[in-house]
Design brief:
This protein has 152 residues and is mainly beta. It has one domain (12-150): Irregular (Factor Xa Inhibitor), CATH 4.10.410. It is built from 2 helices and 10 strands. The strands form 2 sheets. Strands 1, 2, 5, 6, 7, 8, 9 and 10 form an 8-stranded antiparallel β-sheet that branches. A two-stranded antiparallel ribbon has the order 3-4.
Length: 152
C-alpha cells in the first residue's frame, strides 16, 4: 500500500459466490467468477475491527479502568445506484437471499487488493424523490478471520 494519502476515486469492488479454497493470497487469487459490474458504486464504507469496551472500577482508588474485550468486523457498506441488470448487483441479490457468505475483492487505486468473505445482511431499495436516483445500501458483514491485503 502506498505511503501517501490516496483518493477513493478509482476504487472497485468485485464479488464471487465461490469461496476460496484457502484464506490467503493464493486462495483468493484462484477464485473463479469475480464479478465487478458496471460503475454504479457511489460510496465505499469502512473496513476494520470494532472492539468491545470492558469497564471496571477498583475500590482502592475509585478509578474506572477500560480494557479491550472481544471484537467484530465493522459492517462494510456500499451505497450504489440501483441497476437491476447489473451483474455484480445480481450476485449481491443472490447473496442477500442466502445464508452463505460471498468472496469480496476491493481494488484500491494504487493496485492494492483487499480480500475477505462476508454475508449480505441486506440491500434495501431507496427510491427518494423526483431529483433522486434509485439506490441501495448494501450491508456486508465480514465473516473472515482476517482480511488479506495484497500490495501491488
Amino acid at each position: 500500500m502506498s505511503n501517501q494519502a490516496m483518493q477513493v476515486a478509482g476504487t472497485t469492488v468485485a464479488f464471487s459466490p465461490t469461496l476460496p479454497a484457502t484464506y490467503d493470497q493464493a486462495g483468493y487469487e484462484a477464485v473463479a467468477g469475480w464479478t465487478e459490474g458496471d460503475c454504479h458504486i457511489t460510496s465505499v464504507g469502512d473496513l476494520g475491527r470494532e472492539w468491545s469496551e470492558i469497564n471496571f472500577k477498583t475500590v482502592c482508588d475509585r478509578m474506572e479502568t477500560s480494557r479491550k474485550g472481544s471484537y467484530k468486523w465493522s459492517q462494510f457498506t456500499l451505497e450504489m445506484n440501483r441497476v437491476f441488470s447489473d451483474a455484480a448487483q445480481t450476485v449481491l441479490e443472490d447473496a442477500e437471499k442466502s445464508d452463505d457468505p460471498i468472496a469480496i475483492r476491493v481494488s484500491l487505486p494504487d493496485g492494492t487488493k483487499i480480500y475477505f468473505t462476508a454475508l449480505n445482511m441486506g440491500m434495501p431499495l431507496s427510491m427518494g424523490g423526483v431529483d433522486d436516483m434509485m439506490k441501495s445500501t448494501v450491508k456486508l458483514q465480514p465473516v473472515s478471520k482476517d482480511f488479506v491485503q495484497v500490495d501491488p
